[in-house]
């Protein structure tokens, strides 16, 4: 699914009006109708509805919703905020309709106006500012936003298109923004909805289709995408019935240290479950028995030169391996850093870099430029910060993420609710699967194993990182559905990988 900027969404509206054709007021009627239908499902006809309408087209949406709900018998009060002497043409058109049919529902609020007293059980609809807002809300309108937020503890708040005050394409930190329980948006996600700093504003986001012209959607380029099953199915490669284990690659996992062999085992199990043909695990001597017993489907090699090795310190021969995954439970000893450096001098195929391997790169940043082009880095936010520095807000962090991916010719997967995948071509993909139950020890090690397996199977790095993130998250969703988010572990993600693959096919 493409993610468009606010300007592109306005272009999509104009394209639809021109090419369908449909009038601008008709398109507004269509969008508001979808919102009214959603509200009818959520709230009984006896629910008092207070719709706060600005003077632009977002307010126009609110006026149409008011009329449609009044037709269904809802007690509605349309509160018109007089923050501007001018109103949009579509707002004026729908206001006149409402005045003709239901004049008693209208209530004006000016700079000195009283905020209405809401009856028990009332729902608040925010239709004040839409995506046309390009600066922070100030003055008495900021006060209105604060007053609505003060009511949210006892009254549900539903934002239309975007919570008022929230900027679609830049940061809204430290500015007044409606804190909605639900956001009803149209056709596609907005970038602001996918970033952690805005989670307290959007609540649950519901994307309502309003029939924007498909030619605009398909023909308009964008850097931003949200993964969905349709996209994943175009990436997935069904297995060849004449294939053999050599067809699906021989991968090497370099992982584990004393006290952290669980990370290596989880990564190995996930790699095998994700379809690698052959897997070898390079572990310290102390982990040999653990790996051999825990995962008999994997081959195991150990560091040479010491029978008491507790961490990675000798370089394996990487020539025979299709790809290498390195980092889970590795440790950050000096000898391990030297071995990582030697590995990067000798191995030139795309790799998966995670966990302690990322921590070593942050200590020895000159190694970043030695990573094979097309390699995949999988940092969580703190690891990313140690690697590339801090950012003032999530939008700036996203810019930094993309810049580093382009500069280093790497794929960087920044973990989060909507994991962001930055590509060397400048594109950004947000993963749509996953849940808070996956915030558990070992989950990242499982992802490393999945990505390593997909690279070994000749998926391109871009396809591997997009598909791998989706499968990892979807397996987590299936695990949470069966076990609850609280009870699931990283092992459960591995257990549900097979079902996740079946949902792709």
From TrEMBL:
Its cofactor is K(+); Mg(2+). K(+) binds at residues 58, 126, 164. Residues 9-218 form the YjeF N-terminal domain. (6S)-NADPHX binds at residues 57-61, 130-136, 161, 263, 329, 380, 445. It catalyses: (6R)-NADHX = (6S)-NADHX; (6R)-NADPHX = (6S)-NADPHX; (6S)-NADHX + ADP = AMP + phosphate + NADH + H(+); (6S)-NADPHX + ADP = AMP + phosphate + NADPH + H(+). Keywords: ATP-binding, Isomerase, Lyase, Metal-binding, Multifunctional enzyme, NAD, NADP, Nucleotide-binding, Potassium. AMP binds at residues 415-419, 444. It comes from the Bacteria. InterPro entries: Carbohydrate_kinase_pred_CS (IPR017953), CARKD (IPR000631), Nnr (IPR030677), Ribokinase-like (IPR029056), YjeF_N_dom (IPR004443), YjeF_N_dom_sf (IPR036652). PANTHER family: ATP-DEPENDENT (S)-NAD(P)H-HYDRATE DEHYDRATASE, ATP-DEPENDENT (S)-NAD(P)H-HYDRATE DEHYDRATASE FAMILY MEMBER. Homotetramer. Belongs to the NnrD/CARKD family. Catalyzes the dehydration of the S-form of NAD(P)HX at the expense of ADP, which is converted to AMP. Together with NAD(P)HX epimerase, which catalyzes the epimerization of the S- and R-forms, the enzyme allows the repair of both epimers of NAD(P)HX, a damaged form of NAD(P)H that is a result of enzymatic or heat-dependent hydration. This is Bifunctional NAD(P)H-hydrate repair enzyme. It comes from Chitinophaga nivalis. The lineage of its organism: Bacteria, Pseudomonadati, Bacteroidota, Chitinophagia, Chitinophagales. The gene is nnrE.
